[in-house]
Amino acid sequence: MRAADGSASDADYGEFGPGYRTHRRPEPEFASAISAALGDAQTVVNVGAGAGSYEPPDRDVTAVEPSAALRAERPAALAEAIDATAEELPFADDTFGAAMATFAVHQWRHLELGLAQLRRVTRGPVVILTCDPAMLHRFWLTEYAPEVVDAEARRYPAIDRIRAALGGTTEVHGLPIPLRCVDGFNEAYYGRPEMLLDPDARRANSAWGLVGADVHMRFVVSLTRDLADGTWDDAHRALRKASHFDGSLVLVVSRPHGLEQ
Q: pLDDT of 64-117, one tens digit each?
């Protein structure tokens, strides 16, 4: 069953999608890593494409996005996204040179089926930008809103499960998060805690929509207090100057047997 706006996820992007692009811009360091992983493929399918972040401008990209709200957020310079889900890709076998999915696989209703479809329509590498749920609790947010971190951990599939579903030769690379990361997922604010006091910044992270208003209120009250009296900085001051944070972000790169680099 799809959400009200057509998305096949546990979050209704008709509610959370507007303004998403303002806070969730492509981080250049991540974009560079994705581009390298795509290799020399000139045709790429981006599944769960959202507002188009990380679509490489120098390649022929076909975007797939089931959420009407997120399709509407796509810049005019990008091609319109196809209304379809990962589990039912409307393409022939081996259509594309590579496939990508960024911050998307945790939204799919049937992970293995979706990944099998990516492999079916792709001749070369399948590149997945996701979070390792085993690493999410390293982030300080768990001290203030454990319900949000727990919700994320329940949604993100284990990396070994992704490996098994993709088959072929699979590599997993940790992606350190830069201090001024412009892709505003929760961990992007590891050294800028004040940013998460902005309700629009939280709204751009769908996990916040899975918890009640009481969690938002408690988070804002407690973090505001701890920033004002120095409690947060006493515990986490080093993060304000850390150039990168080794959080939960990973890049999973799977290549068919015979195409290993």
A: 999 998 898 888 889 899 999 999 999 999 999 999 999 999 999 999 999 999
User: What would the two tokens of residue 30 be?
Assistant: 């991540």
pLDDT in tens, 183-231: 999 999 999 999 999 999 999 898 999 999 999 999 999 999 999 999 9
pLDDT of residue 22: 76
Task: Tell me if 204 sits within 8 A of 70, measured CB to CB.
Answer: no
For the chain, the domain total comes to 1
Contact indicator for 47, 118 with CB cutoff of 8 Å: yes
Give every CB contact of residue 217 below 8 A, 6+ residues apart in sequence: none
Give the CA dihedral 209, 151, 140, 224, nearest 10 degrees: 30
| Beta-sheet strands, E only, within 89-234 | 98-102, 126-131, 169-174, 177-178
Domain range for 65 is 13-255
Task: Give the CATH number for residue 92.
Answer: 3.40.50.150
Instruction: Specify the DSSP element, H or E, that contains 46.
Output: strand 43-47
| Tens-place pLDDT, residues 219-260 | 999 999 999 999 999 999 999 999 999 999 999 999 996 665
Helix (H, G, I), strand (E, B) or coil at 253: strand
**Total length of the chain:** 261
